[in-house]
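Tutorial handout. Part one gives the primary structure; part two gives the three-dimensional structure as tokens.
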Amino acid sequence: MLRESSNIGTIKHEVLYEVAKLVFQGELEEKKETLPLEMIPGPQANFRCCIYKEREIIRQRIRLAEGKAASPGSENKNIVQVISSACEGCPITRFVVTDNCQKCMSKKCQASCNFSAISMLRDRAHIDPTLCKECGKCSQACPYNAIADLMRPCKRSCPVDAISMDENNIVVIDEDKCINCGSCIKDCPFGAISDRSFMVDVIRLMESRDIPVYAMLAPAWEGQFGGQVTVGSMTEALKELGFDGMYEVALGADFVAASEAKEWSEALEEGKKKTTSCCPAFVKMIRKHYPTLMDHISTTISPMAATAKLIKAIHPEAVCVFIGPCIAKKEEVLDTIDLGGADYALTFDELESMMRAKEIEPKTFGEHLQQGSIYGKKFCISGGVTASVVQSLKETTGDTNISVRVCNGALECKKALVLLKAGKLPEDFMEGMACEGGCSNGPGSILTGRVANVNREKLFAQADNREIHENLKTYDQYEFSMHRK
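Part two.
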């Protein structure tokens, strides 16, 4: 049962947990209709205006947990979805005059407005929302900072201007613009935006035991479950959950570093500039918003795809499930499933819900295990991809005299892409990460910030110092393409 103290993260996690538990018990179809009533028994509302609205939000979150569109009857297939029943009355008038207004004689706000939207009332200025074009000139002109910019947090956070409002002031996400970075999910204070899940499909596959299902842990996983949970511990926990085995995506990252190092060397000789290809939101940003730059994207597949291809080379019948902090990886799965890549993608909070449903504690299992090099493990940190590619060049050609623009977050990516489009990017190469700080701060994380960093560094310190190409020699007998077709 949810309580008044529940926050957005708690509500999402509790729904995922309840759905996972019902799937493991084989009772989802039978009991999902009554689940909202069980979670919100009433009669008093916990955190919304009424229990009926709260139950409808739970119903829509159950649909997302099943991998469906949030709204019944919707054909929206985007990974990021709006929970319409949770979308509250955010300020619709973006610029609002506050009590700081002195109704000064200069009337700079009124003079700056080109749309005659500002009038002077008895106590303060007034902005007519029907005339305001949200240019912001009045806010900039006011000497008392009396005009507040109340842009919706989701809209403000979107780096590609994919968010607007419909006639009922409910948020609408433009699928043609959205890059599924998840910024709006992190910043919506009402939890009205969330993501579709593959969790139900994955649990049913594991429970059927018809085909082998392998987990692939993203480099950012280390530290998410505490500083004591090693790769070996998590491997045993995942087997207990129902997976047939686990591979580190850091291993795929080593393959990617080696491939991009070769690609960058060739591009440098030809005088071409290249971008990395591991962040799907960054790649989608280029394809949707800077299509003339698509030839600059590295042809090397992502670490997720590389790991999946390796697994399928070793276990031809395997189904591969990526587990990480990234929501955009779910769309990458849908985009590349016919190319032999990963079959499903889960987030860390979905995995935590699944383990909780089966009462599994990863810290109680296993010994130390390492598949990827320390360089591959650090792909999750801004600048980590560049460091790995430079290391690969050092191991092969010895030539590390390259310049790279490390773009930390979507806004830095946009600035660099504008320069690249104009032919004014001074660096030879560009690393793009849509999440500030790197994948480790992705919207599907359990822990972020200092606690996660301390845990991660503690685990990284236990890794050996094997080099990238030394690590890859173990897998020389397996052949698969490292490039997109």
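Part three, for discussion. The chain has a mean pLDDT of 92. The first helix runs from residue 8 to 24.
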